[in-house]
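Sharing a chain and its predicted structure for anyone who wants a worked example. Both blocks are below, sequence first, tokens second.
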Amino acid sequence: MKTWFITGGTPGGFGMAYAEAALAAGDNVVLTARRPHLLDDWASRHGDNALVLPLDVTDTRQIRDAVATAEERFGRIDVLVNNAGRGWYGSVEGMPDADVRRSFELNFFSVTAILRAVLPGMRARRSGWIINVSSVAGLRSVPGFGYYSAAKYALEGLTDALREEVEPFGIHVLAVEPGAFRTRAYASFADEPVAETVDAYRPFLETVRAAMIGQDGRQPGDPARGVQVVMNAMRQQTPPRRIVLGAAGYDAVHGRLEDMLAEVRAYEAASRSADFPPDPAP
């Protein structure tokens, strides 16, 4: 029996889908949320195998307390799912500074804080799984979401380095890049008008906002199916380093990487010409 520690327990979201799948597998679950009272009914249905904890993932003290409580209750954390996050939209030039910083605090720095709280126990036991929920936007930037994309790109780089650093301790690390999934992630756009400091970008950002509102509730991805893909990947003898979720997301990432590889190859001679000339043969 494993114990899962999952952030971002919003009802109807990926965090809840991970929790349901883990409980169905017979595991224990610690599900965290900023508004834990919304999960009271859910927790009562699962008895002693489920623990809901209040957690603002941008608060380092709360992170330490939540991890300590989880370890005290279940003895260990075997699987960490860094799922909490959200996207603010705006132009690279004109997004308000406060939103830029909030995006990185939530989508990147909170992950580093949670990793630092959970990894000591995993290292001591020489086992564990870390699931960092990134995004297709972490492999292919989305105009209008430049800073969200940048935070997810940073998470991708962190995850790749972490994977090699903790491999000697028996810890597996998987990056998960969902595309558009039918969670509540798009629901807030209807209540959030464009906040942009450069008027020239407003028409573009209004179309971005309208598109997100129009897609809400119609996203093609099924969170429950996506989580099963992740759990199946974890069972592989040689697990993948990353997995993209959703057909449209796969197509977007595949196209981006193909284009990047073609461009790198086209400029291979230029790249190689930047080195010092080889020493002449004796």
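Comments welcome. Residues 226 and 245 are 6 Å apart (CA to CA).
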